[in-house]
TrEMBL record:
One of its GO terms (molecular function) is acyltransferase activity. Pathway: Lipid metabolism. It comes from the Bacteria. Pfam families: Acyltransferase. InterPro entries: Plipid/glycerol_acylTrfase (IPR002123). Keywords: Acyltransferase, Transferase. This is 1-acyl-sn-glycerol-3-phosphate acyltransferase. Residues 49-206 form the Phospholipid/glycerol acyltransferase domain.
Length: 267
């Protein structure tokens, strides 16, 4: 019987290394756009840290991930790392045609293949720096939602304490305008709880630069994108206040710094 170690080894043979992909994307970015990065020295070479930035376009992730020298961890939806599960739910439905003869004869083979492909995709994303967030099971009321987000926060703190550099967009989502929206306190809470530096950064020029019209009109080509990384706020600089108040104070400082970094690098 094939052992788990042998299975992992076989899957690892299909993984595409991170660095060649990173180099390819960086080259592609600079062929299309004019990307300028400052402040790379502000990112610690090792150890846990939280990296924050404004977020206006999906291009932000590519700019950030290819600019920072070390691996950046991004949290993604559970389903991205387990794409087969949605299909398997349909296949296992009592009304599925695969539960009737003769299609039932091929069901197990199909399930095995889907699990293998899904496993490879999940491992590939994690190899590149992705981590699945906890799956939201039965988050239907305020109490279960609070428990879910508490577990999610604990999960992120654990990743940081293991020495990961984790990227968080404190706006919570992409903001479809040039001005950064108000910041949520999660990123500051993570840094304070984990006792690690939090690094502000700002991206300018990426807004709508992945939209088809930007390429059709030629606006994207040669468009200047700047990514400025500021000086970290270290744990000994965190306010000596209860967590909630300290996180609010740090968040206000970070929001001010990011707004300045969007316009120009720190001197």
């Amino acid at each position: 019987m094939e052992t788990q170690t042998e299975s992992d080894l076989l899957e690892s043979l299909f993984l595409i290394p991170r660095e060649p992909v990173k180099q390819f994307l960086r080259t592609l970015l600079n062929l299309v756009y004019s990307v300028e990065v400052t402040g790379l020295e502000n990112v610690p070479e090792s150890g846990g840290a939280v990296l924050i930035s404004n977020h206006t376009d999906n291009l932000d992730v590519i700019v950030q991930g290819t600019s920072v020298l070390r691996k950046v961890i991004y949290l993604g939806k559970y389903e991205l790392f387990h794409p087969q599960e949605t299909v398997l739910e349909l296949l296992n439905d009592p009304d599925s045609p695969l539960n009737t003869f003769p299609l039932s004869l091929m069901k197990q083979t199909l399930v095995t293949a889907l699990n293998a492909l899904g496993g490879i995709q999940g491992k590939q994303l994690m190899h590149w720096g992705g981590h699945p967030i906890l799956r939201a099971h039965n988050v239907k009321d305020a109490k279960s939602a609070a428990t879910y987000y508490e577990n999610l926060e604990n999960y992120m703190v654990e990743l940081i304490q293991k020495g990961e550099l984790i990227s968080v967009y404190p706006q919570g989502t992409r903001v479809e305008n040039l001005e950064p929206g108000s910041f949520k306190a999660l990123s500051a809470k993570l840094a304070i709880r984990a006792g690690v530096p939090i690094i502000p950064s700002g991206i300018n020029g990426a807004w709508r630069m992945l939209k088809p019209e930007s390429f059709l009109t030629g606006k994207a080509f040669g468009s200047k994108i700047t990514y400025n990384i500021g000086k970290p706020i270290y744990p000994d600089q965190f306010p000596k206040e209860p967590l909630k108040k300290a996180a609010k104070m740090v968040t206000e400082e970070l929001e001010n710094r990011v707004r300045k970094l969007i316009d120009s690098p720190e001197s």
